[in-house]
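Blackboard transcription, Thursday session:
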Amino acid sequence: MSAASGSHRAGRRTLADRDGFLAWVFLLPSVVYIVALVAVPFGLAIALAFSDVTVGDPSYDWVGWQNFERNLGDPVFWRALGNTFLFTGVSMLLIVVFGKVLANILVADFRGKWLVRFLVLLPWTTPVALSTIAWLWLLDSIYSPIDWTLRRLGLIDANLNWLGEPTLEMVSVIAVHVWRLTPLAAVIVMAGLVAIPRDLDEAARVDGAGFWRRMFEITVPLTLPVIAVAALFGAILTFTDMTVVYVLTRGGATHSSEVLASWAYVRGIGGGDVGQGASIALFLFPILLAAAIAILRSVRRMEVL
Amino acid sequence: MANPTGKAAAVEVRNLVKEYDGGRVRAVDGVSLRSEEGEYLVLLGPSGCGKTTLLRTIAGLEQPTGGEVLIGGNVVNGLPPRARKIAMVFQSYALYPHKTVEANIVFPLKAEGMKRARRAERARWAAELLGIGGLLDRKPRQLSGGERQRVALARALVRQPLVFLLDEPLSNLDAKLRATARDELKRFQQEVGTTTVYVTHDQTEAMGLGDRIAVLDKGRLRQVGRPMDVYDDPADTFVATFIGSPPMNLVPRDGRLVGFRPEHLLPAEVVPAADRVGVRLAVDRLEYLSGDRHVYGTASGIGEPTRVIARLPATVLTPIEAGRTYGFAVRGEKLRFFDAASGERAEPERIESPS
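(Written on the board underneath:)
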């Protein structure tokens, strides 16, 4: 009798058997994290955007669409918005192209490939602020080693003002974004390349396709979903980034390289107009949301191939 | 090299060697083989015997470590696959998943630079030949295994290559479909008449499809011959036991092995007396398989007592029970002799029946 009840007890469901309960326990930390650090600040940003809160006067007063209306009348805001799109578009294109090329190098088999892989991933693993400061020195108007090299090669006569002349400023910002995000894209695209069965490439080779035909008729169509993901990450990380612009140019003397994120920071924190800053930052949201939905939908369409 | 037919062989390999890992693994170890024009040549062997490596080297997907590959009489070593006028069907079929059936089939023609109108016409011809004319707009994922195989064949056929290379194309089909697909493959090849090199580990496929079979083991060629030759006159004990199900019985006798097929070991009374070599068979087990009786037991009298299998066709009605000993016999002309040490074929000898 006692033996029977003993075995009965051993067979009882314990806490560890209750999947529903365990699911909640395991999910809770990430839920708390997302609520506290994503949802609450996001709600706060929306609330602040409709207020006149400033650093000097934190009391909340509803002002409706006033902050947004002021943004739309501000030429610097339009400049920042345009720059954000320009930087994102050009960077994304270059990141994807270079990422694909680098991914091909990463999957290739050759001697010393571990060293190449390590070097390729280095820009991504370095903290953005640190690497951007390094770029600040590389692009210095007097001591730039890039200028020195170009001068020695006889390509330029005088130093270029990388971070002072409006067009060069934008080139510099884009170059650093591309340098920083290409490794990420390369790793994502590499995962896609590795997932293509080797048979397909071999079949195409036997079928008489050369390198470019295999690339554009087989490899690229089959990696398009992951290329889209790489593009999405590249776009979001460029779109929302303020570090690169802020460290390199502080937006430029005439706001020539200002972006939404840096302008929101300048207005909201630098200028103390928190409500205004929040309303500028909110412009990032619908655009990012639309981009994310568009790309994820295209990914899903391609996956059902 | 002397060429007996005067014509260039469709495919030929000479002393082909393929090493991996800097010579530590020899996947193909000095194979010389030629296929005749229009022939169906099957490369047969257990997994890891080098048959697929040999095929891939012919295709140009692997570069040989040594030796030569000739296609249509020309040495093609170092040429990329696309310059070799070959077509290959992969085990997985390797259809391009994002392309329609038609786009899959015309792909080799596109790569060749053929005009669009002619491409479409040729694709339709290939598709009709394989009975997939109605599937041209589908994507590979919408096709059954058998249909995918036909698309892969159509893609191979459409370029009218010198040689078809087929790498276990039936292994992804279920057993039932495999038999009909095998039949279709054979008829298809007879219709187009293109030289075919076919890799398989399945002896039924090899016997059924091949004009000739090349048996490989550990990277070496063991025997090449018609299915009948390979079955009836195996060159060594590997071929004797690899081909045939159940395999050939091998009985040790004075430093040699005496081999005979299970279907030749029969009750003494159904073997003609003139050429009868007697075997005493102590039966321990019986199996009844598709009409035949498989008799397991220990044979004595022909050599050292050895476990053997006899396969009695349904026409032999002699009652057999497990646990008893019977007088069996083999016709003397059916005996094959092998050297016990090397496994190579040896001269036949006369075995007197024990009384």
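Lecturer's comment: Residues 224 and 266 of chain B are 29 Å apart (CA to CA).
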